[in-house]
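ARCHIVE CARD
Drawer: 12
Card no.: 0347
Subject: one protein chain, sequence and derived structure
Cross-reference: see card 0346
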Amino acid sequence: MSERVTYSEIKSMVLACYWRGCRDHALTGWSQEQVCAWTYGEFEGAFDLEVENFMLEVASLILSGGWSPQLAAHHTSEISQILSNSSIDILLKEVSAEESEELRGDLVAIANRI
């Protein structure tokens, strides 16, 4: 079994991918929404654990900045679906206190969306 990817690592990977999308696609005419969608698509099936997928959805929602109602609705729906299957406490039971605090802080920032 592989080691769980941390929230910080997921955010770094998503941001690096977004940067590549801006460099390779936005500069040639893609919209911010297209770059965000492409970035998210790059991680399709990348994570096995529910908590990792939850972290990806939170990071992707925040990175999209709420500029795209469609992207926001998608990520919000995915977050809600994951939370309907597992409570936040169960999802974060194997997560360090520091990592949990960081993720919970981000959840507070997006709470009006989920």
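Annotation on reverse: Residues 7-110 form one domain. The chain has a mean pLDDT of 94.
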